[in-house]
Specification:
By secondary structure, the protein is an alpha/beta fold. 28% of the residues lie in helices and 24% in strands. The strands form 9 sheets. Strands 12, 13, 14, 15, 17, 19, 22 and 25 form an 8-stranded mixed sheet that branches. The longest helix has 19 residues. The structure holds 2-acetamido-2-deoxy-beta-D-glucopyranose (NAG). The site of 2-acetamido-2-deoxy-beta-D-glucopyranose (NAG) has 5 residues, from strand 23.
């Protein structure tokens, strides 16, 4: 009763990722963690409940449900989950069932036997990291068809995180917390210890160093803050640019809020599942995620869907749709997900030389159930400098200017990601803004993007030349990786003012824009045609007046956002 499903082409990522080299057959005794997603019940009911609690106009706005209520609502039918569990356990894996997934730990040998497959070990050419994954064909028994959506964790390479640091260069002007306070009008804004904000890092355990954090706080003269809770493994000996940037700016901008740090071994499916199984007080209120990868290259193995890569993208699309539903659960519980829009323009990291004639959306930014944040930079001729912190006394710090799209074309190291999903349709909260944009001059030819899709980013924030303290040194970094924690910190301040969780916040922000469009600094110059590596790209999205797929509604004006929010919510 074995059926050949597909040759694994998750390894499309291999083509885009020459960094990973096959070194050997994976050792049979090696232990693996994987997650089996079983079908969710009541997806329509989930979506309706999620939209109601997220929509400021709904009588149910803000009436978040508990994790156990939500998990019960979407639980896989017991008989079906038991069949899958029995099958997994018969192969010797140690598994525990959740509402609509099964988490397992097993050996390479047992996985190979279960799927009649081979696993190989791959090594990263720079970091030396090892990954064991399926290689070639695999099979599921026909009896599992329709009972397993995906098995996640056995295929695909870790996605490179976005942040990359460089040494400071003389004559450069830096973005520091004082820049954010001055440019985004948040002088005197106060957080609250009852609001919890967390940076999350995926696939491995990138860390920050406490010494760096202490120096950063001293150098930037921000109110002192600590990371009071770490969830997941942590290797403090290896601070990395991404995690360091996230922690430093989330804590500095969301001053007064409680800071957590979360590492997730897996990817988006595992993260959403872990959030929903962490207990009612085991999760942060606001999550900042600075990770992104092509929406059509999120390949996981499945008995139902064809594989990704050369064979087509249906498997990846099904995976993205499932994770979007997972994010709806997270939002229904009141947690705010903030995602950076990606650093490689409208083409993304799987098309770094813009060889495709069309744009390629990135996930999770392309999910309508997160707040996606793009990047801006100041137009060089408009920059004002200043700042009284020790760092700004010794270096030139930016205090303000006119924002344009952050792009390699205009001197940044990255280009703000943006575009339209090929999986999720335009959500109603943004439909009028998106309709105005696609009928205007900012979009490429109709065949280059999906005009019925969810448009992103929703908002933007500075993404160029941030000072961070890393490994005992002052470094500079560019990225939507900076924009996301900055925005997440500002949302933490909004949540403190509101006096509780914001949940899925995008509908509220579009409502604020409609009530007072000066609550956002509109960005009207620049585009995201370029990638990180090339500017020879003929297609992408231009910034225009109003919402656009390079900078969304624009960058935030904190006190104006706050005022409009209080009015909309009758607080
Ligand atoms: C365009 O997006 C819609 C969702 O709005 C999707 O159903 C459709 O398949 C997408 N088209 C392509 C060519 O991917």
């Amino acid at each position: 009763m074995l059926r050949i499903v597909a040759a694994l082409a998750a390894l499309a990522a291999a083509a885009a990722s020459p960094m990973w080299e096959k070194v050997a057959r994976a050792p049979k005794h090696e232990t693996l963690d994987f997650t089996v997603a079983t079908p969710m019940s009541n997806v329509d009911g989930l979506q309706a409940a999620f939209e109601a609690v997220s929509d400021p106009d709904s009588p149910k706005y803000g009436m978040f449900m508990t994790k156990s209520e939500i998990n019960e609502m979407t639980a896989t039918p017991g008989w079906m989950k038991n069949e899958v569990l029995t099958w997994l356990q018969s192969h010797g894996h140690s598994c525990s069932a959740r509402s609509d997934s099964i988490k397992c730990r097993g050996s390479v040998g047992a996985v190979e036997k279960m799927l009649s497959a081979r696993m190989h070990t791959y090594q990263h050419s720079k970091t030396g990291d090892l990954v064991h994954q399926l290689d070639g064909s695999y099979t599921f028994p026909a009896s599992m068809e329709g009972k397993i959506d995906f098995v996640s964790g056995l295929s695909g390479f870790p996605v490179e995180h976005l942040g990359r640091a460089r040494a400071l260069t003389g004559g450069e002007q830096f973005t520091v917390p004082e820049t954010i306070v001055s440019a985004y009008n948040l002088q005197g804004a106060k957080g609250s210890s009852s609001i919890t904000q967390a940076a999350v890092e995926f696939q491995g355990y990138p860390a920050y160093a406490q010494d760096d954090l202490t120096t950063f706080i001293q150098q930037t003269a921000v109110p002192s803050f600590d990371i009071v809770k770490k969830v997941g493994p942590f290797n403090g000996n290896e601070p990395q640019p991404e995690s360091t940037l996230d922690v430093e700016y989330l804590g500095a901008v969301g001053g007064g809020n409680t800071n957590w740090y979360w590492t997730e071994q897996g990817w988006m499916l595992e993260f959403a599942q872990d959030l929903m199984n962490a207990g009612e007080s085991g999760t942060p209120d606001i999550v900042s995620m600075s990770y992104s990868w092509s929406e059509e290259d999120q390949c996981q193995i499945s008995p139902n869907a064809p594989s990704c890569g050369a064979g087509g993208v249906a498997g990846s699309k099904a995976f993205v749709a499932r994770v979007n539903a997972e994010f709806a659960k997270v939002g229904l519980n009141g947690i705010t997900l903030v995602a950076s829009s990606g650093d490689s323009g409208a083409h993304g990291r799987t098309d770094p030389m813009c060889q495709r004639p069309i744009t390629t959306p990135s996930f999770p930014a392309s999910s309508p159930n997160v707040l996606a944040v793009g990047a801006t930079q100041f137009d060089a001729s408009t920059i004002t400098t200043g700042g009284s912190s020790p760092f700004c006394q010794a270096n030139s710090c930016k205090m303000g200017g006119t924002e344009i799209v952050c792009s390699t074309k205009t001197g940044a190291a990255i280009t703000s990601g943006g575009g339209f999903s090929n999986v999720a349709s335009t959500p109603s909260y943004q439909s009028s803004q998106v309709a105005a944009y696609i009928s205007g001059p900012g979009v490429p030819a109709a065949g280059d993007f999906n005009s019925t899709g969810r448009g992103y980013p929703d908002v933007a924030a500075l993404g160029h030349a941030y000072y961070i303290q890393l490994n005992g040194e002052a470094m500079a970094v560019d990225g939507t990786s900076a924009s996301a924690p900055v925005m997440a910190g500002m949302l933490g301040l909004l949540a403190a003012k509101k006096g509780g969780k914001l949940g899925h916040v995008a509908p509220l922000l579009y409502k604020i824009y409609e009530a007072d469009n000066s609550a956002f600094n509109d960005v009207t110059e620049g585009n995201n045609f370029c990638t990180e590596s090339s500017c020879d790209c003929t297609t992408g999205f231009k910034a225009t007046k109003g919402w656009d797929a390079a900078t969304g509604l624009g960058s935030p004006n904190h006190f104006k956002m706050e005022k409009a929010m209080m009015k909309i919510l009758n607080l």
